[in-house]
Amino acid sequence: MKTVTHSLLSPVPGTRRELVSLHHGEPGRGPKVYIQASLHADEVPGMLVAHHLRGALAALEAAGRLLGEVVLVPAANPIGIGQWVLRNYQGRFELGSGENFNRNYADLTEAVLAAVGEQLGADAQQNVALVRGALRDAAAALPVATELESLRKTLLALAIDADVVLDLHCDGEAVLHLYTTPATWPTAELLARCIRAEVSLLAERSGGDPFDEACSMVWPALAAKLGADKPLPSSCMAATIELRGEADVSHARAEADAEGIVQFLIACGAVSTEARPLPMPALRRAPTPLSGSIPLVAPHGGMIVFLQPPGTEVQAGEPLVDLIDPISGAVTTLNSPVTGLFFARDLRRFAVAGMTLGKVAGEQALRQGKLLSA
């Protein structure tokens, strides 16, 4: 294992932050897998899963079972990890700009076309190799003017040429679920099975340019511009894994989640199989569109009383939340907007008007535009 330290652009004299990546296996030998934890730095479960993964990967490397390279970034946000304000952790938004740390990643499609578009031909695998090289060059050439842009560039450069990208997050309170794109589903289904995801939410463009889509969507975008005479298969399966809720931080769960990820690495050919491979778990729920994930929005402020826990199958119109005005005593009951799985809810118990309190995954695509929360 090799440890690499990446210095970020210093925002002011006398300060400097660093990102650390752990590199296991042999680059170029086989598939490249990139895994990062807690890009939203206040979402701790991913960091603990990464802690257990580093031990598992070290053991696999020592046993000669890594068939390629696995890059692990155990704490992907050195900026957010230090943002404490009045004794509260603020790891989702960069305080200087207000920008979400998991938005606004660069689309490298046009840069790659300009660099190698004329060199691509009828050999699909040769095209993949040329595009991967151009993606590395394009990421390395991204301009940066702020510390946040420096972080985005560093993370994208580490991941952009990977076959598999896993971005470890969590929700407020939730069942384990993942986000990915329809084009990646054949491989992502293996991931959903191995980590025992309760919900898989699919969207080609969720809005906001999150990290995982910057890594995966460049491939179908390039293929659409190249045409049939220059075949380019989608060559990056990227997914955001939501490791339940913010308080779900335990060794037992993190170890099980790390084992599920290792089982996925075996299934996708990044790790050699054991003499007795584990049976593939069943898919717990068929994938549903992200545009079918419908939020419960508070019409006014007040105390939040949830009437159902995450993981409950609900019918449209079923009561899910009581919102209570502590001054007037008025109670507003919010019902499920669709039939589906009540899979996530906010950790807080007091709302302001317009706040999203929970989400129900339905089967019908009902929303348009930006599909991700702030």
Automatic annotation (TrEMBL):
InterPro entries: AstE_AspA_cat, N-alpha-Ac-DABA_deacetylase. Gene3D superfamilies: Zn peptidases. CDD domains: M14_PaAOTO_like. It comes from the Bacteria. Keywords: Hydrolase, Metal-binding, Zinc. It holds the Pfam family AstE_AspA_cat. Its cofactor is Zn(2+). Residues 30-107 form the Succinylglutamate desuccinylase/Aspartoacylase catalytic domain. This is M14 family metallopeptidase. It comes from Ideonella azotifigens.
